[in-house]
Structure formats: structure tokens, C-alpha cells
Amino acid sequence: MAITKQYLKTKPVCKVTFTLPAEDASKVAVVGDFNNWNPKGSALKKLKNGKFKGTFDLPKDNTYEFKYLVDGAYVNDGEADRYQWNDFAGTENGVLEL
């Protein structure tokens, strides 16, 4: 699992790239409060090496809770900036700090 952040000098945006090794998965999306937990439009592309990868422009100076949706199952990223308990979901979510 990997998260890379590239802050743009010309816009108040950070390009965030999510990479998840999931060779046996058929569909992976990243969901969070930046997209209302909706996997539509946030699918990651499967690469030849079995990893899923996608880059999204997110407003900087914000904190976002997120998870991966791997074939219908929610998975945390081991490299999240931190984790936060979510009462609604009854579990911890990864947190992305930009």
C-alpha cells in the first residue's frame, strides 16, 4: 500500500496517488468523505503487476477519512497518516492529512 502526495504551486490542490497491491481483486475503489463514500468515479486502475492505482485532485489544508473498497469489502491503508474511530461505521478509518 502506498499514498503519495504532490502539492501544486498554482492551485490549492494536492494530487494524491493511491496504490494498493491486490492481485486477486477484480475491482478496487477509494472511498471517503472527499467523495461521500461513493465508489462511482473513484475506481483504481489495475496494472499489469497486480497493483491498483489512481490519482485524485483533493483540496489541500483538509483532513479526510477514507478506505479502499476491494470487491465489496472495506480495507484500511497501512500507510494512512493516522486512524480515527468512526461511530457510524463502527470501525476505524484511515485519515489523509493534506
TrEMBL record:
Residue ranges of every copy of the CBM20 domain listed in the record: 8-98
Family from the record: Belongs to the 5'-AMP-activated protein kinase beta subunit family.
Cross-referenced InterPro entries: AMPK1_CBM, CBM20, CRP1_MDG1_kinase, Ig-like_fold, Ig_E-set
Species whose genome carries this gene: Zeaxanthinibacter enoshimensis
Top-level taxonomy: Bacteria, Pseudomonadati, Bacteroidota, Flavobacteriia, Flavobacteriales
Source species, domain of life: Bacteria
Alphabetized UniProt keyword annotations: Kinase, Transferase
Example of a GO MF term: kinase activity
Protein name listed in UniProt: AMP-activated protein kinase-like protein
